[in-house]
Amino acid sequence: MADLQEHFDRTIERDQRVEPRDWMPDGYRKTMIRQIAQHAHSEIIGMQPEGAWITRAPSLRRKAILLAKVQDEAGHGLYLYCAAETLGADRTELTEMLIEGRQKYSSIFNYPTLTYADVGVIGWLVDGAAICNQVPLCRSSYGPYARAMIRICKEESFHQRQGYELLMTMMKRGTEAQRAMVRDAVDRWWWPSLMMFGPPDDASPNTARSMAWKIKRHTNDELRQRFVDMTVPQAEALGVTLPDPELRWNPERGHHDFGAIDWSELQRVISGNGPCNAERMAVRRAAHEDGAWVREAAAAHARKASAVSRQEVVV
Amino acid sequence: MTTFDPHATPPAADTDLPAGEVADASPGNAYEALNEGDDPRWAYGTGFADPLAGVDTRVPDGVDAADLAAYCLMLGDDALVMSHRLQEWCTRAPELEEEVALANIALDLLGQARLLLSRAGTADGSGRDEDALAFLRDAGDFRNVRLAEAVNGDFGHAMARLLVFSTWRLALLGHLTGSRDPVLAAVAVKGVKELTYHRDYAAGWVVRLGDGTAYSRERMREGFAAVWPFVPELFVPHEVESRLVVAGVAADPATVRAEFDAVLDQVLTAATLTRPPGTGPAEPLGRAGTHTEALSTLLSELQDIARTHPEATW
After folding, report:
1. Do B91 and A51 lie within an 8 Å CB cutoff?
2. Which of B187, B143, B118, B148 is nearest to B289 (CA)?
3. Could you read off the pLDDT of B273-303 as tens digits, one per residue?
């Protein structure tokens, strides 16, 4: 046992990857399953706010882009559930934990999408924040997760550019009504995007252990600062004002200062009282329950087919 | 990925773009490049202002341009409307693999619709682009078969409709690969590959559900019963189609009935199902602009934003 622990510690220390068949502490396994499952749930729930606009997309090109993006999110959910399965988790059980409210997904998806500009702002800010969070996870100590994240980050980066391009088109070539839509969407999504990095470091109980295990590489506040610094020049290029009067460059720190985040709002949304929590869960639960007969039928057919092929082998 | 530079385009080293693309962007703000023109690489197959670039789009000699445009609308509207019904499944599919597959099929059909609508707008000389045709026509101007517009039911209904639609359309496009119109032939060559997968996907589910549990068998049987009244319409040519068959441009829907029947019989037998009783009108109703009320409801959603903001650029 001591040898196994020592081998694990050495793997982490040398920045090598932990693989599915390696011994790992129970706490590491549980933490990884929880992290990967919550990421997978976020991808799947995250299909809803944008997916709602596919049938109404205002041009066929935008429709194709959005449909492909939402399809990518389903694909990300699939690889992440597969990565969790390499740790002994079961996709059906994880899905049930989600719809019973025993596992969380990213709170950002509990906000509504009110106009087509929200599709662009989600791409720019929400996917942008997700990328800041996720790029370091490409170096996660757990191999299957790290490898899944490389592909996911490539696709997220593509989505972010598409979102930004939509906003750029609306701001630079659109009507005044379209520009107003973009400004309104930026106002609504800016603060929730900053909350995507999680609670401040002094209130984040799991950060230290996750950093020690190298399943997390930067603290929440470090990543949040990077996102703000990255986004400010993009907002300028777009011609929108981020809704924070305290946002300004601080030459001494070499970073932007920004205003205080309303953590009580995050707490409210995480605890189930955001604008769309109930709706998001209801849609996911309905898909799962309405599809139960289809999955049962597929399993029944597969059993019949394998019984037939066994008989043929005997004959 | 060993460093994380907040000033770079997020995962700069990992984007799908060639290396030079990232290096060319100005160092201070990688997004400045986005101000200039339209980069078609942002989404595969979604960035071309002219989807028919490179194909000879002149109307072939002896072909009536108005007929050709009307025919392209027929095939394009079938794909656009069927794609819409599949898009409605998004976030509601029974399994994640089905989310991915249904979106994939919807994207293929949307791609076919875009090519065909663009062709219609150039062939008739009106200069209307794909969006003008998709968003600014009323229900009576749509030329799709009524099968495509029917309101979604459960997953059994979706698979019954997709099997019927894809078997029929695959047979038509198989003939169209030899069309005298080079654009239709090119669209058909691309579409045959796509529809072969759509038909295979639907057939697999029809068999699993038909030969699954007693409940799924009943759902599948009801799915076919709901779809069947729209089947006779698929095989009756509209006069535009008849004229274009003579001109060597169109596929005659009457001639693909045998192939359709053979495929359906094979799949239904494997699924332990039989053809539903009952039938529907054998007239080209949708092709002539006579639709069910499902189409106007569908279009009010499809066209909502585009019509609310007529001056907008997206």
Report:
1. yes
2. B143
3. 999 987 999 999 999 999 999 999 999 999 9
Minimal CA–CA distance to B125: which of B172, B167, B45, B67? B67
* Residue located via tokens 């057919």: A301
* Shortest distance, CA B95 to any CA of chain A (angstroms): 7
Rounded Cα distance, B170 and A110, in Å: 42
Q: What is the SS3 assignment for A18?
A: strand
Side chain identity at residue B136, one-letter code: L
Distance from C-alpha of B180 to C-alpha of B160, rounded to nearest angstrom:
33
Name, in order, each residue with C-beta under 8 angstroms of B107's C-beta and a sequence gap of 6 or more: A64, A67, A68, A71, B83
pLDDT greater at residue B12 or residue B158 = B158
Please report the ipTM that was assigned to this predicted complex: 0.94
| Cβ proximity of A159 and B9 under 8 Å | no
User: For chain A, what are the domain ranges?
Assistant: 1-313
Task: Nearest by CB to B1, from A60, A135, A237: name it.
Answer: A135
DSSP single-letter state for residue A200: -
Q: Which of residues 1-40 of A touch B (CB under 8 A)?
A: none
Determine the pLDDT at residue A85: 97
DSSP conformation class of A15: T
Phi first, then psi: what are they for B181, rounded to 5°?
Answer: -85, 115
CATH number of B62-305: 1.20.1260.10
The list of chain A residues with pLDDT below 50 reads none
What is A1-313's CATH superfamily?
A: Ferritin, core subunit, four-helix bundle (1.20.1260.10)
CA A303 from centre of chain: 36
Selecting from B29, B91, B301 the residue whose C-beta is nearest the C-beta of A56 gives B301
Tell me the two tokens of residue B114. Answer: 């875009």
Which residue carries 């706490």 as its tokens?
A27
The tokens for A246 are 């305290």
Count chain A–chain B contacts defined by CB atoms under 8 A: 224
Is the pTM higher than 0.95? The answer reads: no
**Would you tell me the crossing angle of helices B155-176 and B65-87 to the nearest 10 degrees?**
150
Condensed to tens digits (0 to 9), the pLDDT of residues A167-226 reads: 999 999 999 999 999 999 999 999 999 999 999 988 887 788 888 888 888 999 999 999
